[in-house]
Amino acid sequence: MKDRLLLLGYAIAVIAATSVHNPWWLAAGLLLVAVLAGRQAPTIGWRALRAVLFFSLVISIGYAAGALFGQAVSLDYLILVNIRVYLLIFLTFTLAAKIDILRALSFSRNLTYLVTLVLSQIIPFRRLFEDLRLAAESRRLRRLRLRERYLQSAAAAVHLFDRAEHDAREIALAMRSRGFFQPDATDNAPGD
Amino acid sequence: MHIPDGFLSPQTYLPAYALAAGGWVYAARELRRRVDETLLPRLAVLTALAFVLMSVMLPLPGGTSVHASGIGILAVIFGPWLTFAVVSLVLLLQALVLGAGGVTVLPVNALAMGLGGSVAACLGYRLLAPRWERAGLFAAGWLAAVVPAAMVAVVLGLQPAIAHRSDGQPLFFPFGLSVTLPAVLVPHVILGLGEGLLTLLVVSFLRRR
């Protein structure tokens, strides 16, 4: 329940942060989120800063450069948009640190199962992808030509597809053997 | 190509959520109708695969590379609705688990990349493949990169007109269509060539066996 409330609170906070156009209110919101983040606030704040820095700088510099071409440029806008972007990213990182995503999505059984399966599959896929990359790297005696690099990327993708097909069949069999696909199985699923 | 959080107005992302929700419901019905009991595991594994496919490097001349999207490949093999569902799930997980992207931009990114990209890829492929199979595959990958970029550029470029103060000062993304269209489209028209080539190679390899 706590996680679902957190998710709901997050959704409301996001709509509020994009509906308020006063930088002071947004700054107050940022302070509030930092307090809610507790001891993790400096870590989350630094991660959020790194995440927004490049894009925000590009937009801000591009906007400010408009002054060189005689366009009206407002410092208020720069402050407003940068505080808002930082607040939203800080808020999202705080949520990601505090929430149990599976519990938060438990309003839908199928979505919970789906996300559980996805999360359990991402790690082996990432590991396999990294293994393929390292294997190719270790067998390389010279810098590959563009054509060879494309063939290598395509071969890695094909292997990942093969693995995906195989894993999907295995998981379906495992779920069937545990009675998941019987009509009443999901209705009486544990944890509901 | 993701739009970061904070640059879209609620007047944009709230209707986009309504539109995307309709798409998600339709996609779920369509998939249930077409796919058997393996739907759930298949969707999960393909989502994980798409998550990782987005880490596959698209080689660029000069030894550099960028991330592929894999949308053209998924669209040609599995069709637009499964691709839309998978890409939406990837974006949801990126937003909530990794804190990447964001929830305000999720529906626009999902509609652009998952639906616009995959529908364009399928149409391009179906149009060309009967006569020129390889050209169809290449076009699918190229369109899957370029069409979402165009959609994102339009949505971003409309922000100053949609949300601004009475004096005309923008409240969200500051640049209009005259800036966003060339800035977003030109790089993607070129990157799309790589995406097209990767789609052509991967799908050809998969079908050859």
TrEMBL record, chain A:
Organism: Thiorhodococcus mannitoliphagus
Keyword vocabulary terms for this entry: Membrane, Transmembrane, Transmembrane helix
Transmembrane segments: 51-71, 77-99
Domain of life of the source: Bacteria
Protein's UniProt name: ABC transporter permease
From TrEMBL, chain B:
Main location as per UniProt: membrane
Residues in the signal sequence: none
Gene3D superfamilies assigned to the protein according to its UniProt record, in alphabetical order: 1.10.1760.20
Domain of life per record: Bacteria
InterPro entries given in the database record: CbiM/NikMN
UniProt GO cellular component terms: plasma membrane
Cellular location(s): Cell membrane
PANTHER family tied to this protein: METAL TRANSPORT PROTEIN HI_1621-RELATED
GO BP annotations, alphabetical order: transition metal ion transport
Membrane topology classification: Multi-pass membrane protein
Transmembrane segments: 39-60, 72-96, 108-128, 135-159, 179-206
Protein name (database record): Cobalamin biosynthesis protein CbiM
Keyword vocabulary terms for this entry: Cell membrane, Membrane, Transmembrane, Transmembrane helix, Transport
